User: Fold this.
Amino acid sequence: MIEAAIIGISGYTGGELARLLLIHPEAEITYASSRTHNGKLIGSVHPHLRKLLNLRIQSFNPEKISDSCNFVFFATPHGVSQTMIPQLMDRGLKIIDLSADFRLKNLNTYVHYYGRHTCPELVKKAVYGLPEIHKEEIKKAEIVACPGCMASASILPLAPLISEKVIDLEKIVVDAKIGSSGSGVKPSRSTHHPERANVIRPYKVAKHRHTAEIEQELSLLAEADVKVSFSAHAVDTVRGILATIHSFPLREVTEKELWRIYRKFYGQEPFIRIIKRREGLYSLPDPKTLIGSNFCDIGFEIDEHVGRVVLVSALDNLVKGAAGQAIQNMNLVAGLDETTGLFFPGLFPV
Amino acid sequence: MIEAAIIGISGYTGGELARLLLIHPEAEITYASSRTHNGKLIGSVHPHLRKLLNLRIQSFNPEKISDSCNFVFFATPHGVSQTMIPQLMDRGLKIIDLSADFRLKNLNTYVHYYGRHTCPELVKKAVYGLPEIHKEEIKKAEIVACPGCMASASILPLAPLISEKVIDLEKIVVDAKIGSSGSGVKPSRSTHHPERANVIRPYKVAKHRHTAEIEQELSLLAEADVKVSFSAHAVDTVRGILATIHSFPLREVTEKELWRIYRKFYGQEPFIRIIKRREGLYSLPDPKTLIGSNFCDIGFEIDEHVGRVVLVSALDNLVKGAAGQAIQNMNLVAGLDETTGLFFPGLFPV
Amino acid sequence: MIEAAIIGISGYTGGELARLLLIHPEAEITYASSRTHNGKLIGSVHPHLRKLLNLRIQSFNPEKISDSCNFVFFATPHGVSQTMIPQLMDRGLKIIDLSADFRLKNLNTYVHYYGRHTCPELVKKAVYGLPEIHKEEIKKAEIVACPGCMASASILPLAPLISEKVIDLEKIVVDAKIGSSGSGVKPSRSTHHPERANVIRPYKVAKHRHTAEIEQELSLLAEADVKVSFSAHAVDTVRGILATIHSFPLREVTEKELWRIYRKFYGQEPFIRIIKRREGLYSLPDPKTLIGSNFCDIGFEIDEHVGRVVLVSALDNLVKGAAGQAIQNMNLVAGLDETTGLFFPGLFPV
Amino acid sequence: MIEAAIIGISGYTGGELARLLLIHPEAEITYASSRTHNGKLIGSVHPHLRKLLNLRIQSFNPEKISDSCNFVFFATPHGVSQTMIPQLMDRGLKIIDLSADFRLKNLNTYVHYYGRHTCPELVKKAVYGLPEIHKEEIKKAEIVACPGCMASASILPLAPLISEKVIDLEKIVVDAKIGSSGSGVKPSRSTHHPERANVIRPYKVAKHRHTAEIEQELSLLAEADVKVSFSAHAVDTVRGILATIHSFPLREVTEKELWRIYRKFYGQEPFIRIIKRREGLYSLPDPKTLIGSNFCDIGFEIDEHVGRVVLVSALDNLVKGAAGQAIQNMNLVAGLDETTGLFFPGLFPV
Assistant:
């Protein structure tokens, strides 16, 4: 039985972890902490969990955690888990970190994008938690560093074409669109409803932090240095990411060949669906059709006019982009079927 | 094992039934029909079910249904099940009808609100499927007539105060607000996004059909004739109903007494939550906090200024307002725990 | 020529005043102040006014105001104008106050709902700025106290029926729904997009402050004490209020008679439209059809089933509910046609 | 005085033309036709124009038009104006066509993207109605072919960099996002609110028709053949387009140089604003800040990491993307100041 601690329970990722663990048949939440809601019931912070989860939020206490848990989830902002994880080592705990702290293997890159790292020696212990790419390493990991939501949406559709050396590594444009829950739980003018509703807002058209992990993973797959033109936009929905990837094949490719490549790469993956129909409203992925689920849907279209392959990926940023992927990683580390507790078809329409 | 047929699979209620049956541990969908999508895979009609449900839509065929099913769900528009159910009788099938056809005991009332009824003799066999009110009868029913979504949201908060004779039966105002999925799957100008987005539209401020069943059930509880001032509004969300009920107590009541009455009436009910906190954003029910779940949240507030008790109820119109309640009824008829397959905490935020 | 000061420019009402004055043919903004954005260009606070209004925000300075202005608008939170207006008296300035400070004639009521009033002696000088009710007094006013947005939406539809003694004064239920801009410019969890999107939230079902002014004005019209059952809800749109008013006639009324009453009362009013069609999507008012305009649309429907007259009113809370009405009042005080600068048909669809 | 006919009044573009002509000081609507609403008042089709425009819709009649009008606007689907305009020639009428029929100079391209053209001989008479590019020709035009909404949003930000030969013509990626009003007035499943709300939907990631006119205009400016990688997405708002353009400079460029280029190209243009601030929520264009206005806001950001210049443009698809630009063209043809009747700052927040 998994006994889980959630550090940083008060955010949306923390709430989503709690919801998913609550319905997980092999797990139980035995500890939850937050800097800001000490002593409160989880249900008084997360209204959807009211009367369902009778647990009080505590402050972070490594002894209590190792007494009552075997898995520890970090749903904290970057910079926090690097100070806490060292206190939890050598206690037989498995760590699933949803923050950015242990994702980047290159310390300089981390420092460039996020600032100081106080615990670089643990970075090499951590496995980048994208199960479709690193499954075997995750199973044996002590620390799993779950990918950023935008990174998952970017790496997953690109991985097959980069592995198969189909596309030009010099010309990869990722144009991502995301809902408001990606901004976290803290109010600000940028998320104030009168200003956030009806936007099509370019909020980070260059220098987005997730660029670093996308390039790290794609370079590994390419066995070459990959740079990505990444831009992020805020649109008016609460959940969901769509990444549109403009890629340029090095040689002529056919739809049939692309189907073959994607089927080969992802045919056995329970949470990847290739969505490509000749016509109709849902002929390509749209996060709307998978809200609440752990799927990443991937589609593609060849644009002969300019010699382009457009890739499209969709996921729920709080599930496959965060808490769902973390549970998937937990399942792998715990030796469970990776779909345990994650079979949910997507709420539609919503 | 429950083997279920869904008649009218192509609408939103049909899709939601399919989703809920898919994750139900004791049920399986063995048959699905629709007038409009004969031969298609369910996943080609409902994009969230793609690759999850490998079943083709057929035309309605009573023999095939009785060969492969023991439960039959009707997710059809009103007027349809009354012509089909007679063909299914005496085959040992249990019927769960989500349409209006068998809800109203008084034929004249049905005719007034809906038009002709071709099968009045089966009406008395049907049990009104609001489990919190008619649980024991439902367990033994052959036909369960599931309530309208607005009716559930109106009857549930009023039932305790009417049973306890707290409020004036002459002055009950129900002001309901609903999301767009309540309009069904068929496009029209009223649901065209440019015209439906950002509305606060009074779409039926008098003569709403659900008035009839609300009055039927409240009159039974009151043992007196109850009339209700019902008005419905469309607001900009996909799922959710909020009913605000302005009621006027016959005598002075205190919060404590109201708490006592609601706890007594609903204390054992797994899908009713009394939501009333002194302060905070979620001090009263809001459908936003229970989307995807089978809860009906109920709250109240005393307005001494005018001698009013304001009741507020919230539910997901496609779950507790339709498919979830139908599954709850199925569980009761099948002798299962009524929460089987329905434990889902609500997706939040969404 | 009107030379206007806007005190409290940084809020949404301030921004809307600036927009309307900018396009007003007889007015100019010559002064703007705010506690929080001293020294900034107005366009750096209000993105829609960028490059259109080359004026810097100052701190409040009565001398400068009386040197450069003849009209002063207060778009401040309650409690502010009562401390500033005394410093502006006897300078020949006309005051248009959009806050609550001078709306209530009864000091005790003000204190009950809002707290201390430091300047009660000026209250009697102020005229309640609902032009359709107090036009002649407004023309001669030195201080106009503009109504609350919810109050305008409630008083305007009720005034004719109360004046004509058609409805029961003991049974008036106002169920109001409002968009997020009504919450003002300051972010909080209640307006945080992930939590504010898709709500149908009962945010003040009793004890709403606007009740006081609604009752004051209706009592004047009724020549009797009127109490109102008022409840407010937040829905997912940025602009707009719909008030649904459940009223109960003292005698039988016909549609024809109601038409006659409304035409008589409002036939000459340029910003009141009676919207009542036999059928169709827009047969009753919906704020969606008048966004950006100064209209208040009013409709009605008789519900014979319970002996009810349902009134429905719609307006844009930032225009007819605030800044537009303030400009209408300014026009009246300045001796201009009251529609000057306010002819805008509503942006649709939006 | 301009006396205008609107052909195709019943769509959103027709309604927007009517609204703008209604508030235009030098124009009057004297004729309106539609295939579908013959005999109705305009206000019964467009709810925001109720009681403001007392004109009935007629069927298309060239004689009546030439008797009562001097300007004719076509707000018809493609394929219609090419059959009607020949009947209006030689009557001294000025034609402003908002459809695609006369935009493309190359007949083969038209046929490829739209199908048959019955009136190719008039194509060379038509001027492409993007005033910032073709102002002098428009002033003398008999037929103005107004650009597609996506085309305006793409050409305007690219024109300066292409004219100045800054960017690589082989690598231009335009990733556009648009609201639902762009789909027109006719309901379908793709615009049905339950399915259209909360989408981030790739609806045309290759082969979008507007590609043709974008390439035509950019090739003219480049004096070379330009091909564009264009992809369009539907997002959840009613109005607004954001185009994100990923371009790659041929040599190193600085922000200062880009500022200089844009100021030189657009410094005198009343409807182009360069929006680029170092920080803050509105540091780049967002259609949210200009809804209802005729502005096209343009911003840029240099991404040194990959050697990219990201351009961002925003406009209201029904105003600068359609009806507003048409009025701007009408003003130019009529010899008026091009801003006449178009000074509206954008409704915010909405």
